[in-house]
Amino acid sequence: MSEKTICEDCNRWEKAGYELLFNQALYKYDENMKAYITRYKFMGDYRYRLIFANEFQEKVTEFQKQGYAIVPIPVDRETFEKTRGFNQVLGWLGKIDCENYLVMRQNKGRLKQSHKDRAMRMKTKQPFEYVGPNNLSDKKILLVDDIYTTGRTLYHAKALLEDAGAKFVTSVTLAR
């Protein structure tokens, strides 16, 4: 967006009673980005992480310098072990220190977010478990993910982190 304004999606979340994430996406999720994500994430071409790694790391480092703990959205074990073999977000982050406060609940054969329409995504139950410290003691958290589609995944993660004591949770995604 060229202007700093509340987008339609944020308006929906706000009307539903949620405190906004204020997600920052580096790129628009257009046909070129879809092709990139297909090659990198779904076809597992790990070399493609390098295309956006520098920009992604620069953006995340801005938050890290402000005291944010970096928390990547996890990949479920089935996808990691049987399909991809890597977490696409960690590929972009390189050597940036991350906190693995979240893990995916294991639902064998679950329908992946990429196969759902908006209505189905919004009905998704909490997919994560919190495995971090007993109290995040008012920490600021930066969630990092690949694509912001509806925000459902990020808002689920945000809820768990806030329940654990996080002071403020925001997010950065490669695309939206």
TrEMBL record:
CDD domains named among the record's database cross-references = PRTases_typeI (cd06223)
Q: For the Phosphoribosyltransferase domain, which residue ranges apply? A: 117-175
* InterPro entries registered for this protein in UniProt: ComF/GntX_DNA_util-trans (IPR051910), PRTase-like (IPR029057), PRTase_dom (IPR000836)
Keyword list, A-Z: Glycosyltransferase, Transferase
Q: Could you name the domain of life of the organism this protein comes from?
A: Bacteria
According to the UniProt entry, its GO molecular function terms are: glycosyltransferase activity
Q: Cross-referenced Pfam families, in alphabetical order?
A: Pribosyltran (PF00156)
Family from the record = Belongs to the ComF/GntX family.
The protein here is known as Phosphoribosyltransferase family protein
Native organism:
Ligilactobacillus ruminis
What lineage, starting at the top, does this entry show?
Bacteria, Bacillati, Bacillota, Bacilli, Lactobacillales
